[in-house]
Amino acid sequence: MDKDVPSPLRPHCLCVAVPHHTTEPNAMAARAEEEGAASAAASGRVAVCVTGAGGYVASWLVKLLLARGYAVHGTARDLSDEKTAHLKRLPNASEGGLRLFRADLLDYDAMAAAIAGCKGVFHVATPVPSGNLTDPEREMLGPAVTGTKNVLEAASSAKVRRVVVVSSMVTVEINPKDWPKDKIKDESCWSDKEFCRNNEDWYSVAKITSEEVALEYGRQIGLDVVTVNPALVLGPLLQPMCSTSCQFLIYFLKGGPDRMRDKLWHIVDVRDVADALLLLYENPAASGRHICAPHSISARDLLRLLKQMYPGYPCINEESSDDIDNPAPMTSDKLRKLGWSCRPLEETIAGTVEFCEQAGFLGDLQGAPCRFPPVYNKI
Ligand SMILES: NC(=O)c1ccc[n+]([C@@H]2O[C@H](COP(=O)([O-])OP(=O)(O)OC[C@H]3O[C@@H](n4cnc5c(N)ncnc54)[C@H](OP(=O)(O)O)[C@@H]3O)[C@@H](O)[C@H]2O)c1
């Protein structure tokens, strides 16, 4: 696609930089394609790319892909052991199973080199902020939106079979226009982007815009793009750092000074999200969006469940959540009809807490106060 030709995609770009292609990195991508195809062919495996491979969701996906016999090209901004050792230790990672590529989402050429030689792409990488943003354009919107465009353009150049883009429930459930409050939300429901923008909810603005861009780009150029919209993701971690979504649960158990709303939360297990991503890649019947939000529970009911399961923790108190009028939940029926199933919520919570205890994330109950990640008071 010629970057100089105006495209209907441009209005979604939020004034972010257009990727710059040069001859040399294209040669780099071609070389990587030859090497990638050769190494995947030598091992008899189909190569697929996972962006942001070291992250919470992506690490479980890489584990699943390797177990199912795929060769994985994983991208990471930082290839240090701290960020990637857990990937290198995965079963089947050695002997050509896993190749890691240093790539920032804003670096088209680096992304193209990672995607070259792949039959499929799982675009998982997006900043998931655990604190307040000081420069939303640089920290959130640019990487999410331009990053998605870069990945799709590179996937198109590499002629991949399908791109699976990880979107979010935040693109479905936030104040949708013309959607009755008591009507179950399905894939035809879109969050109100202007409402999110006015609320300075930059994570949701970025996710809505990048999902729109992904689906529109796919339609325009005939690239097979499907999206998945996971709920709040919980479950054990493979990487040593705590994810923003697990900090959500930790706050419920440790308690702290922040207030929250008695919101109806949708929750999904990270291992079930990985299953959904692979299913959407492999199942030819998948198309468009797919809500992946099987469990719904209000903040207070979640607190009651946690107190019952883990009476030893101080926990937040019920008065620290404000009443709100919750609309009807979302349905994951479209995904279930493709053959997806999931764990019970209690198993997910037990897996998260057990992991966080072992990793020391739930220790230091008397130390510095735990904080509720501000993003969860916006969405
Ligand atoms: N966790 C949830 O509750 C949840 C719910 C719905 C949807 N999602 C979506 O699921 C995806 C993964 O989220 P997660 O929970 O696994 O978060 P995560 O662990 O923070 O993973 C995010 C990944 O994106 C990478 N990334 C961020 N900015 C980047 C950039 N500029 N260039 C390249 N890579 C970049 C991060 O790399 P670094 O390690 O270098 O920062 C990390 O690998 C995201 O698209 C998120 O929006 C998550």
TrEMBL record:
Keyword Signal carried by entry: no
InterPro entries recorded: Epimerase_deHydtase (IPR001509), NAD(P)-bd_dom_sf (IPR036291), NAD(P)_dehydrat-like (IPR050425)
Domain named NAD-dependent epimerase/dehydratase: residues: 48-287
GO molecular function, one term: oxidoreductase activity
Keyword Oxidoreductase annotated: yes
Alphabetized Pfam families for the sequence: Epimerase
Annotated keywords: Oxidoreductase
Domain of life: Eukaryota
CDD domains noted in UniProt: FR_SDR_e
Identification of the protein by name: NAD-dependent epimerase/dehydratase domain-containing protein
Annotated source species: Urochloa decumbens
